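Fold sample X.
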Amino acid sequence: MAARGRPKAELVLSTEERLVLERLANRRKSAQAMAMRARIVINCAKGDTNRDVAAALGVSEAMVGKWRRRFIEHRLDGLSDDPRPGAPRTVTDEQVEAVVVKTLEEKPTDATHWSTRSMAKEMGMSRTTINRIWNAFGLQPHRSESFKLSTDPFFIEKVRDIVGLYLDPPERAVVLCVDEKSQIQALNRFQPILPMMPATPERRSHDYVRHGTTSLFAALDMATGKVIGSLKKRHRATEFKKFLVQIDEEVPDHLAVHLVLDNYATHKTPEIQRWLLRHPRFQLHFTPTSGSWLNMVERWFGELTTKKIKRGAHMSVAALEKDIRQWIATWNEDPRPYVWVKTADQILASLARYCERVSAAAAGAKEA
């Protein structure tokens, strides 16, 4: 029986075209629309009619006819989408550059930073246009972050020492990150806390009553994530010594104890030095000055603050301490160790790049 319908133009593939089409049709990362177009062309090249190809691939005959025709006319280039119609650009590249340069190099006369409103007024554009330009270049004038570079003369040595403990801990030893979270306040709001409701967040009064403070000594085991904690009224060398005794009692005798801690004066008193001489399995590794980010127990303190203390309400120090002890016990039932991934060389290289940026910014400020 003769084929019905208008005769179709013959579609013949070269070896190179067939390879490209088969790669597009089978590669997982190809867009699904492009993969379907490639399958349509491959089937058409077999001599099948549009109806047969449509039935085999589950698409319409019109779609098969479109891509058969586009391929015959433009070959592989014809499988790409045509440019979509749209309004012409109203903002030129020069205007975009001017907004970026002004944002980075200038400040408004009446403020410390630009807003979309002030920049739009300055440049004669809409706030939406300014917002799109800032988003495209990752500019956020409303944000500001703080930083502090360590001036410790032994900064590099201390970084290598502590990072080495994290990445390659010694055998038959435990690595504990130790610090004190001092002056934790037992606060209670002046008025009752209103619970969360649909479309309404929890609400609390901005003012509060202080009911005293407590200090938490904590030691985070880098291998297991478990925490040894002790609450004290004060945070002197005497309390720190008692905490060291607690660690000594809880860590098995056959393990050496490596403590990562900061340069707080209570960690270096003669009383502590004498205790350490009597307990040689303890080795102290001090973080650089202004380098508390190296002590992973600070990360754990952050979770304690966010999840328990910040939004808590306590009528007494005893109630606060009970909550903290319960939180530590719950944590230790299913501890989650923090995994350190950066090498010392990576950290030092990153800080070197940051120092270069700071130096360049300082030089630019002097020239201005």
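Fold sample Y, listed below.
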Amino acid sequence: MNEKEVKEKELHFQQLMEDMESENLKAFRELFLSLHAYEQGQFYLKLPKSMRVRLYSYMSPVELADMFDLLEEEKSDIADYFLEMSPEYAVAMISNMYSDNAADLLHQVGNQEIIADYLKRMNQDDASAIQDLMHYQDDTAGAIMTREFISIIGHQSVRSAMHVLKSRAAMAETIYYVYVINQDEKLRGVITLKDLIINDEEALIFEIMNERVISVNVDDDQEDVAQRFRDYDFLALPVIDAKGRLQGIVTVDDIIDVIDDEAVSDYSGLAGVDVEEVSKNPFCAASKRLPWLIGLVFLGLGTAFLINHYENIMEKEVAYLAVFLTVITGTAGNAGTQSLAVAVRRLTLKDKEKNFSWQMIFSELATGMITGLVVGCAIFLIVLLWKKNLWFGFAVGFSMFAAINVGSLAGSFIPTGMKKLGVDPAVASGPFISTLSDLTSVFIYFNIARLFLL
């Protein structure tokens, strides 16, 4: 959004506030409804409770449904928003939302009594669709799919299919793909809106449909679904159950949210902190960070114990050893973090080959050996020219080579091992790998120093 658009939006929001304060209902509605639903949501989130309550009297629940479909909110606030509305108003709004978005919002409400009351007040079809979506496990295709799609029977004509499309278009989340099912609701093909337009009206659907349909299962992980979108560049994907029956569709707008959520999750894991904690109070944020930091302190104490164990070497060669200790530990930690980032990225790719993980580890180990050899030789020459000591230069250079290799191996092996155990590899965070690299590089450094210098 450029500067001009930002200023224009701010002026609109300011005018809306003035209209609300002066109770100029007609002007407020005209300007509010001219905004995109996303901009309506941004304005809504800026309002204090008293103004939000007034907004509910200005706008019908049907008019706010599109806004809540796109609302970007803190989960903890959703229940408060609904409690501000009358149950009738909230139910009417939810009933006019897309079922997947409505299910997400009710999930965030959390209060089972409120959810049950809302579902009881809805008509049976709407309540059933939302309840079905809420029963799917989080982060699966079933949990992010929508029920608002268009399906037809293969033995009807293009003319008949266009009639179905027109009659259901208003409730569908997308009309570009029309899915072909049989009498048992099993997915048999797909046809695009373009196909319906360019083909003869009397042509039968099964004669022109594409029978090779790319689909996902309701239990597929949302990351796998996102990868399927990335591979095929679809706008939507059909979701089927174990019997091949069409249950819903996943649309590209939901996948964009999935990609964003997964990126935040991975980055949080790599950093060892919740990167979205900016809105939390300091005590809550500290409680999230402390377990990692305390755990890393105890792991870091291992480094201190190692240094204490080799104090006899430190006493004899303290001037030399201390100078290069932080260089070796820091470089090894950086190498481990680099390998970790590459390993996590590779593990997210859709590659199901049997030896993929081992190939990745061997590849990263080879990379570590090359980088370790180059950096080790460089630091060897620097130490030799600086300190005029061949054996000390060799000790530092070889320690650097070994530490980088161990750091690279840890950075690739740990997330791969976690993946094998069914644990999110992103939790093998950068701070953990860095601290572990410090521990191992100190052990390597002092043992090699003892070998060559004593």
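Sample Y note: Residues 277-453 form a domain with the Tetracycline Repressor; domain 2 fold (CATH 1.10.357.20).
Also: The first strand starts at residue 151 and ends at 153.
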